[in-house]
Design brief:
By secondary structure, this protein is of the alpha+beta class. The protein is built from 16 helices and 17 strands. The protein folds into two domains: 15-321, BirA Bifunctional Protein, domain 2 (2-Layer Sandwich); 333-423, Rossmann fold (3-Layer(aba) Sandwich), CATH 3.40.50. It has helices spanning 15-34, 48-52, 57-61, 81-92, 133-151, 163-171, 180-188, 192-201, 208-215, 222-231, 235-249, 312-321, 343-355, 369-378, 389-393, 415-427, and strands spanning 38-39, 45-47, 65-67, 73-76, 99-108, 120-129, 157-162, 218-219, 255-258, 268-276, 285-292, 305-311, 333-338, 360-362, 383-388, 396-401, 407-411. The strands form three sheets. A nine-stranded mixed sheet has the order 1-5-6-12-11-10-7-9-8, sandwiched between helices. It has a five-stranded mixed sheet with strand order 14-13-15-16-17, with helices on both faces. A three-stranded antiparallel sheet has the order 2-4-3. Strand 13 (333-338), helix 13 (343-355) and strand 14 (360-362) form a beta-alpha-beta unit. Helix 1 (15-34) packs antiparallel against helix 5 (133-151) and helix 7 packs antiparallel against helix 8 (192-201). The protein is elongated and about 95 Å long. The two termini are 45 Å apart. The structure holds adenosine-5'-triphosphate and magnesium ion.
């Protein structure tokens, strides 16, 4: 035991857990690739202003900020979208449009740790820059939906809204623009008491009911008509109808309208969406995204942008909760030399197997057969290859199926071929 512990809110991902993360990450990457996104990677720390420029206050309070040796203020990234937009402005403004990129990486927020909420966590995300809003929004929702269904999470709810609905409604109240973020924030957190108090502060308590009624509208497309009854005809509502038409043509199913989705960050400008896995309880949101304006905040030309980010830790948790059968199997072959004379042939065999891309591990501890087999079992090796001195003298070895315990003597020279056939067979 050491006196050192992981910092609060961080974890060591041990092999079994890491295997689950790797599976989730592989499937997410695969979805992005199938949709024509190309992966990028940006630094884990950036100039603090990159995040203070426009992110919501909550994220700024949550940031890890430090001065580097040159006395510059740096922050560990609390999210990755800002970095992608900075990268676009630095390097890609001349690249052909649209720019479709995806990323995977760690983010850092000084939060109160609990199940599904960490101080270092992992995000998968994607952004489209430079395509029209409708096309981008539909593509991003389709990708999020595809990526999540590829994972096989059982209980997903995809809720889509439009920030313009609440914004346009706010225009017809007495609340000045500076007062909007606080009201939108209380709508995001569904704290309607707080929202009402804010309206009252501006002498407009009467507006509060309309907003809470709208914020609670949730359901199929028919909700758009109900919203129209409260807010009147609105471009944002017509836009959502058109977006749903396009998504239907793309074969995306199971979407809900949720007028109350306004997202925490201030840089969203149009469509906004969130995905929940209710089995996760309080920390149920696994994905958030929408159309945003960041390039101009960073001093660039405006560019239409839509993106989302998913919490990989929560996706792994959701799969664990539903009893997902993760494949935690180890190597195909565990080679066990018995006796000094067996070591050289064992080394040769392991090298040959690895050369043929058959995952192979080798007993390094000189243990007897039963102890070596116990270790192979713990590591979930699929087969053991036992090299005994007497067998070797006749050019033979024994292949043991670790699941059934069946053993078969085999010619040493045939082992690679036998494994290639076994692997082929088990993959079918
Ligand atoms: P929450 O309301 O749960 O704090 P958020 O709105 O702050 O989420 P985003 O900034 O949209 O989250 O980040 C995208 C996704 O990253 C979230 O939907 C969530 O799955 C995940 N996420 C955010 N913060 C954390 C965290 N501290 N630990 C683990 N996952 C997180
Ligand atoms: Mg948060």
């Amino acid at each position: 035991m050491t006196e050192y512990q992981v910092p609060r809110g961080t974890r060591d991902l041990l092999p079994e857990t890491m295997a689950k993360y790797a599976l989730v990450e592989r499937k997410l990457r695969e979805a992005a690739r199938l949709f024509g996104f190309r992966e990028v990677r940006t630094p884990t720390f950036e100039a603090t202003e990159l995040f203070t420029a426009r992110s919501g206050d909550s994220i700024i309070e949550e940031m890890y900020v430090f001065s580097d040796k040159g006395d510059r203020s740096m922050a560990l990234r609390p999210e990755i979208t800002a970095s992608v937009v900075r990268m676009y402005l630095n390097e890609m403004t001349k690249s052909p449009k649209p720019i479709k990129v995806s990323y995977l990486g760690s983010c850092f927020r000084y939060e109160k740790p609990q199940t599904g909420r960490f101080r270092e966590f992992f995000q998968f995300g994607a952004e489209i820059l430079g395509a029209p809003a409708l096309e981008s929004d539909a593509e991003m929702i389709a990708l999020a939906s595809d990526a999540l269904s590829r994972l096989g999470i059982a209980d997903l709810v995809i809720r889509i809204g439009q920030i313009g609905i609440m914004r346009q409604m706010l225009q017809s109240t007495r609340v000045p623009r500076e007062g909007w973020p606080a009201i939108l924030h209380s709508i995001d957190k569904k704290e309607f008491g707080q929202m009402e108090a804010a309206f009252e502060d501006y002498g407009d308590g009467g507006s509060s009911d309309k907003f809470s009624a709208l914020a609670e509208l949730k359901g199929g497309r028919e909700v758009l008509a109900e919203a129209r009854e409260i807010s009147g005809e609105m471009e944002a509502l017509t836009y959502l109808s058109t977006l749903f038409d396009r998504l239907e043509k793309m074969g995306v199913k199971g979407l809900t309208v949720d007028v109350g989705v306004v997202r925490g960050l201030d840089y969203y400008t149009g469509m906004v969406f969130e995905v929940d896995s209710p089995s996760l309880g309080a920390e149920k949101q696994v994905c958030g995204g929408g159309a945003y304006a960041l390039a101009e905040v960073f001093g660039g030309e405006p560019i239409q942008s839509t993106g989302f980010a998913m919490g990989i830790d929560r996706l792994v948790l959701a799969l664990e909760r539903q009893g997902y059968a993760f494949d935690l199997s180890g190597v195909w072959a565990y080679v066990i030399p018995l006796g000094e004379k067996a070591v050289a042939p064992a080394l040769g065999l392991a090298a040959e197997m690895r050369m043929a891309e058959i995952s192979t591990d080798l007993e390094m501890m000189g243990r007897n057969l039963s102890k070596a087999l116990a270790y192979a079992d713990v590591c979930k090796a699929r087969y053991a290859i036992i090299l005994g001195e007497r067998d070797l003298a006749a050019g033979n070895a024994t292949i043991r199926d670790m699941k059934t315990g069946d053993q078969k003597p085999t010619k040493l020279t045939e082992i690679v071929k036998i494994f290639q056939a076994l692997i082929q067979h088990e993959k079918q």
